[in-house]
């Protein structure tokens, strides 16, 4: 299994990138969001990868973070969502946006991805509603700071490193808040939904404030 590719970009396209690793070129398919975030040709990059193996096909799919790779694996567990459809969804929503859409049951947001119809979008939300909170709660743990990971390259191309982006503080707050609420006994799906709604409040600038706001939403209504 190829879990990570690090090398020099020799070609870029909207749906894939060709990375030279010590003279061997790897074609890695990526979402449009990831493609737009990559450095220019001649510079170094690193992507976490998932290898698709079929009888007559080997394809690598790349992700800027381990969290996004985990979402890809979850998405492709849904019938009708292949690797390309998963990249379309992640390219439209990103990892955090996808988690929020599923937590809130917002299948219309998923449907905004190219090639995803309403029935398929509803299936994604329905089938992943119970599974998504566990991935959301692991957000901070699944993020690796690649700044300390060297890209080793023998070619004379520029060696400027482009580390994969780390999770935003809001992503960390979300993961920690969901984990805390689950530990308090709330169902993961309820915790994820409340945290997703509470994160809209600009005042939820840290984990404690996000938890308090979510608890208010989870409190029994008179």
TrEMBL record:
Compartment list: Cytoplasm
Similarity comment: Belongs to the RuvA family.
GO molecular function terms noted in the UniProt entry: ATP binding; four-way junction DNA binding; four-way junction helicase activity
Keywords: ATP-binding, Cytoplasm, DNA damage, DNA recombination, DNA repair, DNA-binding, Helicase, Hydrolase, Nucleotide-binding
Region described as Domain I: spans on this chain: 1-64
Main location (coarse class): cytoplasm
One record GO biological process: DNA repair
Keyword ATP-binding tagged: yes
Domain DNA helicase Holliday junction RuvA type, residue spans: 1-62
Region span, Domain III: 171-222
GO CC term (a single one): Holliday junction helicase complex
Gene3D superfamilies given in the database record: 5' to 3' exonuclease, C-terminal subdomain, DNA helicase RuvA subunit, C-terminal domain, Nucleic acid-binding proteins
Holliday junction DNA helicase RuvA C-terminal domain location: 174-219
InterPro entries: DNA_helicase_Holl-junc_RuvA_I (IPR013849), NA-bd_OB-fold (IPR012340), RuvA (IPR000085), RuvA_2-like (IPR010994), RuvA_C (IPR011114), RuvA_C_sf (IPR036267)
Function, as annotated: The RuvA-RuvB-RuvC complex processes Holliday junction (HJ) DNA during genetic recombination and DNA repair, while the RuvA-RuvB complex plays an important role in the rescue of blocked DNA replication forks via replication fork reversal (RFR). RuvA specifically binds to HJ cruciform DNA, conferring on it an open structure. The RuvB hexamer acts as an ATP-dependent pump, pulling dsDNA into and through the RuvAB complex. HJ branch migration allows RuvC to scan DNA until it finds its consensus sequence, where it cleaves and resolves the cruciform DNA.
Assembly behavior: Homotetramer. Forms an RuvA(8)-RuvB(12)-Holliday junction (HJ) complex. HJ DNA is sandwiched between 2 RuvA tetramers; dsDNA enters through RuvA and exits via RuvB. An RuvB hexamer assembles on each DNA strand where it exits the tetramer. Each RuvB hexamer is contacted by two RuvA subunits (via domain III) on 2 adjacent RuvB subunits; this complex drives branch migration. In the full resolvosome a probable DNA-RuvA(4)-RuvB(12)-RuvC(2) complex forms which resolves the HJ.
Organism: Thioclava indica
Domain remark from Swiss-Prot or TrEMBL: Has three domains with a flexible linker between the domains II and III and assumes an 'L' shape. Domain III is highly mobile and contacts RuvB.
Highest taxon of the lineage: Bacteria
Protein name: Holliday junction branch migration complex subunit RuvA
């Amino acid at each position: 299994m190829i879990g990570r590719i690090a090398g020099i970009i020799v070609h870029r396209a909207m749906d894939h990138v060709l990375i030279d690793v010590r003279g061997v070129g790897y074609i890695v398919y990526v979402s449009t969001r990831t493609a737009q975030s990559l450095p220019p040709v001649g510079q170094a990059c690193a992507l976490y990868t998932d290898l698709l193996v079929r009888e007559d096909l080997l394809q690598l799919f790349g992700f800027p973070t381990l969290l996004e790779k985990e979402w890809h694996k979850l998405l492709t567990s849904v019938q009708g969502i292949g690797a390309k459809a998963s990249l379309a969804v992640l390219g439209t929503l990103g990892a955090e946006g996808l988690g929020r859409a599923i937590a809130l049951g917002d299948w219309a947001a998923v449907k905004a991805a190219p090639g995803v119809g309403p029935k398929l979008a509803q299936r994604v939300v329905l089938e992943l509603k119970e599974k998504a909170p566990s991935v959301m709660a692991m957000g901070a743990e699944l993020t690796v700071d690649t700044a300390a990971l060297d890209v080793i390259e023998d070619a004379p191309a520029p060696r400027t490193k482009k580390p994969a982006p780390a999770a935003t503080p809001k992503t960390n707050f979300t993961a920690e808040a969901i984990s805390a609420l689950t530990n308090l006994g709330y169902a993961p799906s309820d915790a994820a939904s409340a945290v997703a709604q509470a994160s809209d409040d600009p005042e939820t600038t840290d984990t404690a404030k996000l938890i308090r706001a979510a608890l208010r939403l989870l409190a029994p209504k008179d």
